[in-house]
């Protein structure tokens, strides 16, 4: 049976490289102000679609600035994007699209992170992983990073699909159902996350947990490919499956 690993930044490795990135995706859905269902003002983290291009939308300027909007405006903009997004993508408030843009300096290493939920691969790292038959690393986009140094390396952001879910046994029993209006769930990451065996994807080596998008998961095949290629930057924490 395949083993699954939660991917987190290996800070010992990334601090050795001592590079730095300041970047964000070009387009975003607004956050939600005062949901008429649950009353919350919020935006999601971890819903990133670097391969989704909004440049053909007549209203693309409405997607440039991160800000909260009332539900009607968020929902209107969400429906403009939906035909361009992957089928069944949930598109919560704060979903990001298009290339990561910004500045970088120093050595970022073969695999690097922006925050704790966005993984970037140097182009040569991506090629090595593809040669080792890691599945579904084709989708995504090149990060548009301005470096000060000459001939800087190119980085790629894989578009990592949402799949699977945390097992109910690792969540508090009093977890409320999602808001019927905006879909928000008040969930903090469990101390001992468990994957639900009945919902695991069989066709992917890298995914985000369906009900916890900031958690990146790789299969044993992904981990082996990274370790064999000697690409540092990721710590692999085995996730039990039930
Ligand atoms: Zn709500």
SSE inventory with pairings:
Layout: E1 4-9, H1 11-17, E2 20-28, E3 31-32, E4 48-49, E5 68-69, H2 71-81, E6 96-105, E7 111-114, E8 118-122, H3 123-131, E9 140-142, E10 144-147, E11 155-158, E12 162-163, E13 206-209, E14 212-219, H4 220-228, E15 234-239
Parallel strand pairs: 3-5, 4-6, 6-10, 12-13
Antiparallel strand pairs: 1-14, 1-15, 2-6, 7-8, 8-11, 9-11, 13-14
The protein binds zinc ion.
What do these coordinates show?
With 242 residues, this protein is α/β, with parallel strands linked by helices. It has a domain at 23-97. The protein has helices at residues 11-17, 71-81, 123-131, 220-228, and strands spanning 4-9, 20-28, 31-32, 48-49, 68-69, 96-105, 111-114, 118-122, 140-142, 144-147, 155-158, 162-163, 206-209, 212-219, 234-239. β7 and β8 form a beta hairpin. The radius of gyration is 18 Å and the shape is globular. Bound molecules: zinc ion. Residues 35, 37-38, 40, 179, 181-182, 184 line the site of zinc ion.
